[in-house]
Amino acid sequence: MCQYVGLDVSVKEVSICVVNGAGTVLARGTVQTDPDQIAEFLDQNAPDAERVVLESGIMAIWLTRELSRREVPIICIDARLAHKALSGRINKTDRGDAEGLAHLARTGWFTPVHVRSEASERMRVLIGTRERLIRMRKDLEAHVRGVLKTFGIRMTTSHRSGQRRGLRDQLAEAGQTDLAIELMADAFNPIHKALCAAAEAMEDELREIARGSDLAQRLMTVPGVAPVVALSCIATLDDAG
Q: Cβ distance 82 to 103 under 8 Å?
């Protein structure tokens, strides 16, 4: 007898519901958000599971990957479309959502989504780290420029050479005119220097990865495609085929 399973995932716990082909509930349970505990529950209560579904989300990527390694027939489905189906249920609880997901698994009324590989996720971590460092640096620079304008000080454009040392020099020079600006310079200049150095180091790392990738080198033959853009494309598509 085929069984169908719905997993309603939260950060700490997973509500599980098992139904048969006729839609009769066979088992319910709640376990910790741990792939071993989920797999153990399924081994005991749904040994003949044909489909196990969970909604896309932050925890879904990791759980889908780990449950696949444990030979669970797991499918990650589109959370937005699943929400439309589940919103019609009277009891909107974790237990009720797990049962609703089990019925979606039974009927096949869902849209599966692609779960990226670990290699792709690692690449996205590096690209995201570089982006965040640059954004933090720009936010700090914009704040400094805005504050100094209230004192009639207009900073000139800072260039990339010397990790934008020109901006720090201008801020230190402005600090000689006012104690408050001096305190701001003492606080912000080391942070700005560290952000610039970290962003540049991360960019060097990405360039090195791109140099070692044949696919990235091929993408970079397109005008305007630099190492970061090429790696972003590879990490997003995941499967070069």
A: no
